[in-house]
């Protein structure tokens, strides 16, 4: 299997660009399927920017879901004060608490950990 093919650089660059375009299209198609199946969601830029600016992920996702601290606490089965303390950074929250909050918000645990 030591066969070798030589092609002009221009043709190589064109083929490489086409391969990258194909990979991008395949990634796009997988994302569309995941969205349609409910396995993924689109997050508006406003909320993404808040996350990128370092705001508490718990607060951002709670706002995105339209929940008050009390409503999230009730839904997750945790104390409202605990939610407030995690949002303000006064407490980190236990794994069990963060897991309950993530479940109530419908996000992965990793989404809440900075």
From TrEMBL:
Pfam family, one: HTH_3
Keywords associated with the record: DNA-binding
Location of the HTH cro/C1-type domain: 58-112
Gene3D superfamilies according to UniProt: lambda repressor-like DNA-binding domains
PANTHER family in the cross-refs: HTH-TYPE TRANSCRIPTIONAL REGULATOR, METHYLPHOSPHONATE SYNTHASE
Name recorded for this polypeptide: Transcriptional regulator
Protein's organism: Sinisalibacter lacisalsi
Origin organism lineage: Bacteria, Pseudomonadati, Pseudomonadota, Alphaproteobacteria, Rhodobacterales
């Amino acid at each position: 299997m030591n066969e070798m093919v030589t092609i002009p650089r221009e043709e190589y660059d064109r083929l490489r660009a086409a391969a990258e375009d194909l990979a991008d299209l395949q990634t796009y198609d997988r994302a569309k399927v995941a969205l349609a199946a409910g396995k993924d969601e689109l997050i508006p830029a406003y909320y993404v920017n808040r996350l990128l600016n370092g705001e508490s992920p718990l607060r951002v996702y709670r706002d995105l879901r339209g929940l008050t601290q009390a409503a999230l606490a009730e839904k997750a089965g945790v104390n409202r004060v605990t939610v407030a303390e995690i949002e303000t950074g006064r407490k980190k929250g236990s794994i069990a608490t963060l897991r309950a909050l993530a479940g109530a918000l419908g996000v992965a645990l990793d989404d809440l950990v900075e």
